[in-house]
Amino acid sequence: xxxxxxxxxxxxxxxxxxxxxxxxxxxxxxxxxxxxxxxxxxxxxxxxxxxxxxxxxxxxxxxxxxxxxxxxxxxxxxxxxxxxxxxxxxxxxxxxxxxxxxxxxxxxxxxxxxxxxxxxxxxxxxxxxxxxxxxxxxxxxxxxxxxxxxxxxxxxxxxxxxxxxxxxxxxxxxxxxxxxxxxxxxxxxxxxxxxxxxxxxxxxxxxxxxxxxxxxxxxxxxxxxxxxxxxxxxxxxxxxxxxxxxxxxxxxxxxxxxxxxxxxxxxxxxxxxxxxxxxxxxxxxxxxxxxxxxxxxxxxxxxxxxxxxxxxxxxxxxxxxxxxxxxxxxxxxxxxxxxxxxxxxxxxxxxxxxxxxxxxxxxxxxxxxxxxxxxxxxxxxxxxxxxxxxxxxxxxxxxxxxxxxxxxxxxxxxxxxxxxxxxxxxxxxxxxxxxxxxxxxxxxxxxxxxxxxxxxxxxxxxxxxxxxxxxxxxxxxxxxxxxxxxxxxxxxxxxxxxxxxxxxxxxxxx
Length: 510
Prior knowledge:
By secondary structure, the protein is of the alpha+beta class. It is built from 20 helices and 14 strands.
């Protein structure tokens, strides 16, 4: 059966999507979702109905559905506020609006395409092989399948990372090919693979998951780790995905960053963006890294004025720099953050990452009434957007909505990769607990934030304020001295940006 609408063809026999005869690579579940919509034009489907129809009732999170909707829209060039093909019906679900015709010839003329996907040379690519269940119980097989899908869904939040849709073709092979063979066949940069094994222990349900990340071209294993999950399948999935992503995502950032640094000659706009992203992910969110990243993002945006991600990320960096006084040119930072956010939103106001960056920037420079709705929309589009969760929590803290601030910041930290940005988010969460009056939780979060980045002065300022309130003057002085070790030119203005003017002045008196 071939389904046609406008310039598109869906060949259900060969599982191919084409526009003007040109093949478009999409993941299997995304293809199935588009086919389901095309078979039922103008009908509104709720998320639960889509899960029943497309995923056959398997364990699937809202993040997976949102990610597939997003990828389906991208495959159909359905961007911006128009939502030409897949429209969101608020409070009800999604509706496919195209006029579809069906034929059973399946032999229309096609433009020949190469066997390997046409990944852009500037964009890193990853193939996720289906995780193998090391036993036959149907529940374990379903869990391995669901875990593979969830990991694929969450990893779509990494900007510019292309996820290959060809992993399913290796599902039934008794022996998977080597990463090098996969690179030669598909052209991907990295391969993620692993296994799932039941691990009974005195009546307690346990599963052991082993995951490997490999540089496909070189054939070298970049990272491997084993995780033990306890509890029923549903609970194990909820805890296992963020646990694995927390360790995996920083390794991907590190691999991509190193590859970009090895490029000879002038870098493209996207490569400059990836370098800036790598600096912030690996070196931490500090005044030096912010300045270096901002310069790279400006160059990226100049090279490609239509690159919404570069503009949005620049707005985030400059907005955070303005809020926490991390920029020497604070007024210019405010103006540039506003200009970059406005431009990014004009370029793409339907991308979760763009909305998350721009919404955070607008809230940080004093426009929470605009920023907060954008952050909510970012989470509606992709509930796995950890940065948007944390940014929304930070905006709620600024608006004195303390309970909501704690909830959103805690969730953002829980689903975030374990990198240095957690030091700043943890500092903000500690302040939220402190304002609520829970000093024990505030101290715990501040100490954890200090542990997460030895080069970030922010959690040390918050910890010093907590110790001072607890009457631990010597511990407060030590925390403050540690902050000055990191940033010798620390000012009252920068301290007050974190803990307020009153606490800041009393800390300076120490």
